[in-house]
Amino acid sequence: MHRCLPGARVRALIVLCLLSAPLSGGTLSRKGAESFALAFFRRDTTLQSMFDGNTLAMSRRLGISYEGVQYKQLISYDVDDSTRASVNEGKLGYTVSLDTLAGGFARVLIDVAGGAQRREFYFRGKKCISPLEYFTRGWHVRESRHFRFVLSDPGLFNVYCVNTLETFLEQAAGRLGLSANDLHALARGKIDYYLCGSEEEVRSLTGFQVRGMYSLAYDAIVSTYGAHEHELTHLLVNYRLRRLPLYTHPFLQEGLAVALGGRGGLDGAVLAELAGFLYVSQSVETGSLLERAGFAQTDPSISYPAAGLYNRFLLGRLGTEAYLKLYRKHSGSAGSSAVARIDPGELPDSTGWVSYIAETTHRQAIGFDSAPPGARCVFSDGVSSVAGDGEKYYFRVLDHMLLPGSAHSSGYRSRLFRQLYPAEPYRGEEYLVRADSGEVSVYNLLTNSLIAHYAAGFAIPPAIVPRRGDGYGFSVRAGAFDGPLVPSSGGTWELIRSSDSDRYFHGLSFPDSLHGWAVGDSGTIIRTSDGGESWMQLQAGTSQNITCVSFTDSMHGLVGAAGNAIGRTTDGGFSWKWWQLPGGPRSVCTAIALLDAREGWSCDNMNGISHTGDGGNTWEPQPGPGSAFGIQFLSPREGWAIGARKVAFHTVNGGESWTSVFLDTLRCGRVFTLISTAVCAYDSCVWVGTTSAASNNSPARALVFASRDRGRTWHCQWYPGTGSFYAIRFVDTREGWAAANNGLLHTTDGGRLWTMHTPMSHLIMVGICFVDRTHGWGLTFGGDIYRFRPR
Fold it and tell me: Both ends of the chain: CA-CA distance in Å?
């Protein structure tokens, strides 16, 4: 029942509501601007309340704080302590002006001492907000796992840079000792990345007209570069330390950022080569850079690469924790002795440093060797050409050539290409190679950066670029490129499921182009019936970690779990029946191979291989491997398995007996381990992936052992920089895919030449499925799922 209130009581309630309403509504008044300025100088208790709540949350979201800094949101927008003291003592005057802006915004200008120092603040209503919020109104927003991208012009943005940043973040996180929980927290809070169209836009957002910078106040990257890894390093080291002084000695601060992330537009490897020349030619020496004043007085084109190379050495020599301890030790207030000078006695002796310089000067990306007989032509534009042998690319360039590369960025416009060739059309090429008698430059046009460089004036001994026919001839190490110069397949991998779960995934199965299952820790099973467009969680009936999965059609499937448990479904995964195979709690079912609705095999890390002939209702152990980590059957009779002691096993009678192949006797020149499920067979061919056991002094070089005659003869395959093969799948005897530690590799000749199709070394791809040449999926350890998209 509703009652009507007398008019007087209604008016009283309205007045009471108005009096009790928050004062944040409306627009900022002149008096409000003056109150803000007064609080700004006096630092009284009202200042914090004058900031918008979302702005404060934005500043605090990653948990980074600075000693002695009460108002983090004022970093870079504040005045120094002496100026503030002079104002409060009446020795310096200031003026306040208020500009009313459209949309309920306002700008407050505070001028100290006749404009000698000017500070701008922006308000929404009566609350102060960050310039980042004000100037990016109407900008476009995109998100990835760890980043929130705010874009001035979407045409300057591409997914390639997103993948580059994600890759770099996880690599740098490993170098800096960030934990999995740290990365999960970053995924929740997001790193704000503002991609600007010009340095003027950077100035509007930060107050500094530079190509890019890290905003300490709001833990954001503001840059004209799509992948500004240098500034991201600054953020990550502060995130690792969480609470630290505001200033750090630049030799360490900038040196670390160069060591891990290069410098805007210049790849770290390019700067390392330059630094090697500077040290060898005695154009710079470390001692002069250990004084902050000496570092500041040295041209940044010298001080930054020199510090970067030494910090690479220092991080490797000391290890992460000792390095960060030194970094923290030389952080402090602006005028502190810790920031002013590093004592040479705190650094390692010079013997190791001299050897490190020598190694650097011998690892040049660009050389002048000719293509060997086995190199094949991978691209020609009719004037220039390039051939490859898996380790290097061999160029003959008239003056410049454009290379498609492995990325596809529809609608993207390269700012660097427009600067270099304003009259030429840009068609989405990834690489630009330029050459003349004195210089070779290799650019990545998607990141707008120089990734490899040779200059005769910076070489010891100097040498001109040789002529070969009508062009200049030289080689570039394959590792300088993020992927193959021309993708072997006309397709790309797209992220279709992003996971923020703390659970790890281990297996993937697609029996056809629509139905798929992925499994992981704590009984996790997810299912798709539309090719990966959508996924649903299934109830597995167990809390054990599920390690492998195999479906033969849309209804029949098996999964294996810790404790050597096997689960069976006949309704697509909506219900499960479980069996316990022999083995204790340390026994784990490592792989499942279900050939049809009845025939299947499982293997575990303790007991070996078991067989079922009734779809998983009963299991019988088979003779052969004592423990196994991977298995695949081509028919009810023929199959392959991987054993624990560098042994591959082959059967032609359904597993009643197995023939052993001792892979470590094949003498491929590398030490390796064999503890993965990377085994794949197709017709008479078989491939077995390994993990490198190389030391710190020997580069990672994992191997694929391949046979084309059912294991009678074998040969070795590899790709530069690969330390582990996690999964291998072939769609026929020639075309195949491999998930490696540095990305997804592709081959069209049975593995004789592997090329990097999709770099993604920040991820561990634990599963690859192809049902035909155009339908493929990949699963990462973190639960992300990728789908192959043919062009």
Answer: 67
